[in-house]
Structures are given as C-alpha cells and as structure tokens.
Amino acid sequence: MNWFKKKFEQFSERLNADDTAFGAGEKKEEAAKQSVSKVPERNALAAKADNIEELKEITVGAISNTVRMLGYSNTVVSGLVFHSAYKDHAVENVGLMSLVKDPQFLNRVKREFKSRGVACKDDLQIEIRLESPDTAKVTAITEGIGVEVLTPKDALKRQKARVTATEGITWEPEYILEPTGKHYFIGRGKDPKIENGPKMHNDIAFVGIEEKNEEPYKVNNFISRSHAVIVFDKEIGAYKLFRSKFLNNPSHKIKVFNASLDDFSGISLSNATVPHILKNGDSICFNDTIVLEFQLLES
Description:
Elements: H1 2-38, H2 49-67, E1 76-84, H3 94-100, H4 103-115, E2 119-129, E3 139-142, E4 145-150, H5 152-156, E5 161-167, E6 175-177, E7 183-188, E8 204-206, E9 228-233, E10 238-243, E11 254-258, E12 263-268, E13 276-277, E14 283-286, E15 290-296
Parallel strand pairs: 1-2, 7-8
Antiparallel strand pairs: 1-4, 3-4, 5-6, 5-15, 7-9, 9-10, 10-13, 11-12, 11-14, 14-15
Helix pairs in contact: 2-4
C-alpha cells in the first residue's frame, strides 16, 4: 500500500510539472508573438545610423574576448580577419564594411588592445572574407559574422606561394600553392606512369615529349616524371621541398639556390625523407638544367 501511495504521488508531481512547463511554454510563445508583432523584422547588421555604434560595441567586445589571454604573453597582434557567411552584396555585410573602413573604429580596437596589455602592429591588417566556411569556428559577433585575431605566426600559416619555371616549360605559366597541407607533386607530364610504379598526377607539370613531340619541349627531358614534392607544414608555417620517393636514380639531382641571400653554393636534396624549408626567392634546380622559382605571396 505504501509503495502504491508513493508511486501515485510521483505520478501526480510529474503531471503538475508538465502542466507548469506547458503553461510557461504557452506564455513564452504568446510573448514572442506579441514581440514580433510590435517590432518590425530587420537584420542587426543593416546599414542604419542608429545601430552602427551598437555594432561597433559588439565587435570591440568580441575582439576583446578573443585577445583576453594574450596580455600574459609577448604575442603581437598583426591583423584581424572578419568572417561573413553571406555573399558579396548581402545587406548583412553593409554594416561590417562600413565599420572596418572607419579609422575611429580601428583606433578604438588599438586602445582596447593597449588596455589589456596586448601589443599590436601599427599597420594592423584588416581582411574581410565573404562566404567564409570558417564563420562558425571564430569568435561570433552576430549571426553569420565572426572575427579572428591573427598573430605573425598565424599569418605565416595562411601564406600562399607562387612557383614559376624560368628554365623548362610547364603547362601553366605559374602555380599558386595554398597552405593547406596538400602535396604538390613536380615532374614531367600531367599524369605520367612511373616505371615500376603507379600512375601519378603532377600538380606542377612540365610538358612531356610524350604529350607534345616538338623541339622546344625536349629540354624537359632533364626532369623526371616524378622528381619532387612541395608540402606546407602547418606546425612551422613554412613550405617544405622533398625529393620524390619515386626518384630512385641517385644521379638525378635537386639543388636549391638563393641569389638574394647570397647562397650560390646551393643545398642538395639526396634523401627523400630530409626536406629543405623553402625561403622566398629560392631557385629549385633539377639536373642542373630545369629551374623553378619559389616566391611567397603577401598574406
């Protein structure tokens, strides 16, 4: 009997709780309806003078939260990247565009850094990325809009590079490398078959005599079908050059020079597991004939 009484009391309490929650839910829903009927719908980032100051305060607050721990280190802020999930001409971007072009806003951000003991570069770089896939990964400002604070190391991790052939003929006039960790294979032919190996795809491809049997392209015979590979190392923020694992003939050479750094003796790559960290202005020479120039692009 006591067991039955206890169960009945528990059941009654549950019903009362559900009823209370249901009533509260109805009240909230009714309040929401009234709120919607009273306030016209508009986006928080609409380009209106009465809310640009509010947007400024929200944005400064988001940036301040992002850098709050940097005051305990020697880290220097080099830039801000604003991520927007919206397309180029979307109204959601109008307020953001106005904000980042306002020198007073930039000065306000720098004062905020100073108040938190965070150093920043005088020429603080500002970037806006529209239709950014990373909006949800950075500090939120409003729905679909976020901000990311960059340090010099972060900037390096975003740096693209360009590779062009100064000796030899490639299929493309230049190749842009992205700092994604992708392996960029270098060799003769777009999709060559490696002897006693797989069929490859060269991301930086020299025109093979098998593809264009013409005199100007015979110089490309000095580069192997799979000669080298470039990959970005996210840990150190730099591009690395490796000798291809399919380059079995030790007589095939890879040597890197940098005339701008007075490096005329060069560095040889003879081991596929030991890379060379590429520097801006490096010349990559294959078999003393074919040359690729490596250049870092502005972040």
